[in-house]
Specification:
By secondary structure, the protein is α+β, with helices and mostly antiparallel strands. The protein has a single domain, classed as START domain (Alpha-D-Glucose-1,6-Bisphosphate, Chain A, domain 4, 2-Layer Sandwich), CATH 3.30.530.20. 22% of the residues lie in helices and 41% in strands. A hairpin with a 7-residue loop joins strand 6 and strand 7. The longest helix is centred in the last third of the chain and has 18 residues.
């Protein structure tokens, strides 16, 4: 299985996550923008995901809620700013547990010989906000999401 790569450089406000999938770009775009499929891949494997809102269009809102085995909820959401199928989307990304720390996420899907290179870059409001995501195991959860997405794409 391919590995998820992270670029997290000291003193910067961004996190870059890269993964190559064995699926065409249009299929990957369709899967990552389908609210019915989000619960099957988004978030760490030990959390369930519910989609409360997902309008994949400029100005459209999204909100996903992760629930752990004890019933605790962790909600994330934002607004889509650009959607260019099957090439990219840009949206804000905010964990409701730290209101006001809004990141701007750009997801690009690049064709790579029948495969798709997924590149997500999130820019956080400060180095400290970015580092808090890293300390909270954000990259670990992101890697697990990418593993789950790879499994889902392989099953399609």
């Amino acid at each position: 299985m391919a590995e998820t790569e992270f670029v997290i450089e000291p003193g910067r406000q961004d996190i870059i996550m890269i993964r190559t999938f064995d699926a065409p770009r249009d299929v990957v775009f369709r899967v990552v923008t389908d609210p019915a499929l989000i619960p099957r891949w988004w978030g760490p494997h030990w959390l369930d995901t519910r989609v409360d809102a997902m309008e994949v269009a400029p100005g459209g809102r999204w909100r996903f809620v992760n629930t752990d085995a004890r019933g605790r909820e962790y909600a994330f959401g934002g607004v889509y700013h650009a959607v260019v199928p099957p090439e990219r989307y840009v949206r804000t990304w905010e964990f409701e547990g730290t209101p006001g720390e809004v990141a701007l996420e750009t997801v690009r899907l690049e064709e790579a010989g029948g495969r798709t290179r997924y590149v997500a870059r999130s820019v956080h409001p400060s180095v400290e906000a970015r580092d808090a995501i890293v300390r909270a195991d954000g990259p670990k959860g992101g890697a697990q999401s990418m593993d789950r997405l790879a499994e889902l794409l392989g099953a399609r």
